[in-house]
Description:
The protein is mainly alpha-helical. It has helices at residues 68-79, 86-89, 107-116, 122-137, 150-163, 167-185, 192-209, 215-223, 228-246, 251-271, 275-281, 286-293; strands spanning 4-8, 14-19, 27-28, 34-39, 42-47, 58-59. The chain has three domains: 1-95, Beta-clip-like (Beta Complex); 96-164, no CATH class; 170-299, no CATH class. Strands 1-2 form a two-stranded antiparallel ribbon. A two-stranded parallel ribbon has the order 3-6. A two-stranded antiparallel ribbon has the order 4-5. β1 (4-8) and β2 (14-19) form a beta hairpin. Residues 30, 71, 83, 85, 87-88 line the site of zinc ion.
Amino acid sequence: MTNCYGLTTPVHDSIGIAFDPFLGAANHSCEPNVAVIMSGRSASMRALRPIAKDEEITVSYIDDRNPYETRQAQLRERYRFTCSCRKCVSHDYYDQSGPNYSKPEPSTFTKLDHARSDHTAPQAAIKICTDILRSRLSLPKPPPITAEPYAGARTELIGRLLEIDDLLPALRHSAKRYFDIDPVRFPQPFEPRRVTNAWALLRVILRLNDQPESPLTQELFVEQAFDGVVIMWRLIGEVRRSVGRSHGPGEFSDLVQRLEAEVKASITAAGGARAVGYVEQDPEGFWERFKGWKDEVDY
Ligand SMILES: [Zn+2]
């Protein structure tokens, strides 16, 4: 049997479906060793970790971060098979947090599916995701924020906040994902989702930077004398160093390099030849202050 793939942009926005007999031959695992990255008319498989000679190449057909029961149900419904990968055989109901934590109400997964639906308006989805995130704290032994459905709910929340241009909470939640969630869930810095999320955080800062008159930009960058360029430069350097491994050559990689050159030119134009070094040193500690922003959301 051969599979179709959801067709996406390099940063995982869905735009259709694709069929490729070679890619379609890869079997599923809930611990895949490659991710499929689309770029324009081409697609490539990127290793998520070192792969041994003769080791089978596997991809994940579903969101492999979901708990065991959700994964099995999705694979049965959509692909008509029962997965027996190592992760499933070890049968840990709640893979990412272990038995010492309370399990989420099963309905929270259904609610998240509803929030993700195109038929759900942004405001309604924001409320659902916020409720899911807060519900974690009312459990007797709250699982970590890196577990599902919480990490997924936060990602959906960020997307929906950006949809309605509510940039301050989008910024805080993206920063929380960047600092507290992704390094745990995706320990390899070149994991495509980790790189894409760092890129998303950078995009929020860029959007603020492009709206100098907005009250939020005034508050952050003028009243608090916060230097967004320090953050931008650091994030873009990080994405650029990983993109070759995470996404390979293609439109995303080109875009990252172009943006880095543009930001570098504007730093140099504003502060002279030594300005880039100054921004990198960050003597005023803007990066540490930026880290503090994520703690403004306590759920
Ligand atoms: Zn599995």
